[in-house]
Write a structure and sequence with these properties.
InterPro entries: CBP_BcsN. Helix content is about 20%, strand content about 35%. With about 220 residues, the chain is an alpha+beta fold. It is globular.
Amino acid sequence: MTPTLRTISRASAVAALLLTSACATTSSPVSSASGSSDIGRWVPIEPARAHVALAPANTANSGTGTDTLSGRELRTSQGELIQTLTLSNNTAIPGDNELVASFDYGPSSIFATDIHAPKVGRYAMAPSALSGLIGEMLPRANVQGEPQIRKNRYGLYGYVAAEYPGQAKCVLAWQVLDGDAIAQGFGDGGAPRRAGIQMRVCDARAQPAELIASFDSLRLDL
């Protein structure tokens, strides 16, 4: 394992250890904000309603790839809110440019916990999980170099650059946050216990250094 990948893995493991020790008996905004008919199914949302956003393309340092086209969300019985924003895309390569944010509020009470239901969101990024994420979001892409570490307003995040030769350059970024790191973007008592965020952006003209600047503009908002 390379030093960079080891650093990212170690940071994710520590964050996961801290987060899994949290109590699961607090009130869940997920269950109170939606009817039971919405639990377990994807529903469309206006991008402006999402709890996560990137700066528009004309205000970010990247030239393209950050304008939001549509949004959808999934609420789970485990107290998760998963939101996916589809971003503009000027390529014909496999997959979508998208921003995925998973917020884990925990179940509304300990009695509502389903111990057999897996979490949907990604709240840690071990090397094996990263390999799966790359295969899912950048199918058949040529990964360029090792994972790198960068920083936005919420702390450190990891990313990799990739290429579809002759077609597009891409970046895949991920960030794992605990409740303290994201509380600044939420109202009193409204912050989730943890969050996992991933961004995949590919562009036919821009370079990875331009594309990753989009994730620097990440903003969480209730």
